[in-house]
Amino acid sequence: GYGVVAEGFNVSLLKKDIHTLRPGEWLNDEVINFYGNLIMARSKESTTLPKVHVFSTFFYKTLSENGYDKVRRWTKKVKIFEMDYVLLPIHQSGNHWTTAVIDMKNKRIEYYDSLLGNNPKCFLILRNYLDQESQDKLKKPFDFEGWENVCPKEIPRQRNGFDCGVFTCTFIEFKSRGLDDLDFSQDNMTYLRKKIVLSILNQSL
Fold this sequence. Notes:
single chain, 205 residues, alpha/beta, globular
């Protein structure tokens, strides 16, 4: 269970991690973070795709529990204000994966929950983060003029208790290409799980 199946981004993914992509299993942090790194790598290599930064699953948890100072250095080498999209996988209440998107181009903070839940606190935390990050890195307050919070409900919906991680990976993958038409559903989950496995093994999307 502990054999290394993929190495990259200073991470070794083990067999037990890949096993979380079997049907009916919960995806773990390691799989979601590796996939996020693949998405960033694809964006960096492309001249046509949006510029994106995908935060680790541990970012929002650390920010929400311990405050800005604990994540201030996480963007030492990343200029998030130059990105088109900042994408965040969020482990909601420790038992459900959701997704937040900071859309710099369209001035929107979006929250995607495959169980159609709301999370007003998330918008507050991310707005506060943007302001503190701007003060720290750009030495000025963040200009929220024209920004809106959006929690779309006409989105692909989860029909069980274990596919939320796959929905989160897929929301992030679609948004990283600038797509608003989230053209997938619960029926695609087995295929999408296999696709994520192949992406990780080939280290290519």
